[in-house]
Design brief:
alpha/beta; elongated; single chain; eight-stranded mixed beta sheet; 15 helices; 18% strand
Length: 498
Amino acid sequence: MAVPVAPAPAGDDHLQPGEGTAAAAARYGIDLADLAERAGLTGAAGQAHTVQLPRPVGSAVSLPWDGLPPRVILVGTGSGSTRDLRRAGAALAREARGLRRVAATVGVRPADPASAAAQAVRAVAEGYLLAAYPPYRAPGTSTPAPDPVGELVLLGRDGTRAGAAVTAARAVADAVWLARDLTATPSSTKNPAWMAAEAGRRGRAAGLTVETLGQRELVAGGFGGLLAVGGGSANGPRLVRLTWDPAARTQTGHIVVVGKGITFDTGGISLKPRESMVTMKTDMAGAAVALATVLGAAALGVRHRVTAVLALAENHLGASSYRPGDVVQVHGGRRVEVTNTDAEGRLVLADALDWAATELAPDVLLDVATLTGAATVALGRTHAALFTADDALAGALESAGEAAGEPVWRMPLVDDYEELLGSSVADVRQISHDPHAGAGAILAALLLRRFVGSTRWAHLDIAGPARSSAEAHEVPAGATGYGVRLLLGLLSDPSFRP
């Protein structure tokens, strides 16, 4: 069983027991808050401590978890905010590894209005499920898997609302797990054809409309960016479209999410250093997020029409690799002067964005990409860089990110920097002609803006938060699935108007 403890209020020295703590203390004849303090708990979110207890004999207090082993997990709930309860759920999951079942009153708040109580239950369940994620292991791996996390039984009174909240949490967590798994899959398995097939299989199983463009269709359609980037690899590029189409009477808009899907990035002729190449199986995280988002939208039954566009290619070094100095004609006819083959993401996104804007008629066009190291330098590993000229869309994404625990930071689209992308041989240059100008993330966003026309558009550079070097709360080490919760939160928000 797991019970909550909160920090001492101002002017008090003692932790505050939460729902169920007093009953558990009476059942076992102990002061759980005192035990928590002795264990060094402060009640902060993210803390958890297991107390082994003697089995009670002859107690008059009957509890729903009677019959379970006498083990109590004390879980800090902090301020009780959504973020803190999500972290409490994650801490509980890590403490529950190897257990068969955990009954918990963490997040149960009977005094709250029904909607707030359901939100608290969802936060705990979501944190628990996200932290329960088993790290990706290649099939046939002989090293032992970590202990699984036990089943969570949330104790409360409003079963209907709580059940709906847990169902929603599970749909979001399933989508995040998928994005993590795909991002962590080795590139020896995960080439563009495999990724396209996996997307198609999952999409059709979920009732989505699926379209895949292979080499022949890309050539016929003028997708010069994908063809140039993927030209050096034996594994040709793909473009995949998947659409969730709810009942026409409930539709309120069409949102298209474009994901960068570089299934491995050597840098091409502008070869990366060895150390920088090690994590490049994750350079398709944007495409994984886009796929997981449309599948999650279907599972949640969001009222918007949602389309994911996956721009898939391997950026390899080969006899047919594109070169610095080449001019590439991307979808729609614009010509781009290439000066660095390791800035390939903006080329495949140029194709996908132009195609999406002109062929899919979206009300809102979003792109998600591990695009620039500059975004990581600016914002680190917790925030994505957000670029858009649309204040309302920026506000909606900022609010969704804050609520979901995936924060964004809005960056400027500086029009004066456009001249740095000027080219004497093409319509635009791929990167700045001034190597000392800086502003790499801004310049990449300015280039992408040229391919969206008048469509409402936002760009999320997730190069920092897509990968984590260590687990923190609900985020594991390795592939994080960052962006799925943010986008599903946006799509599920009743106030969002495409």
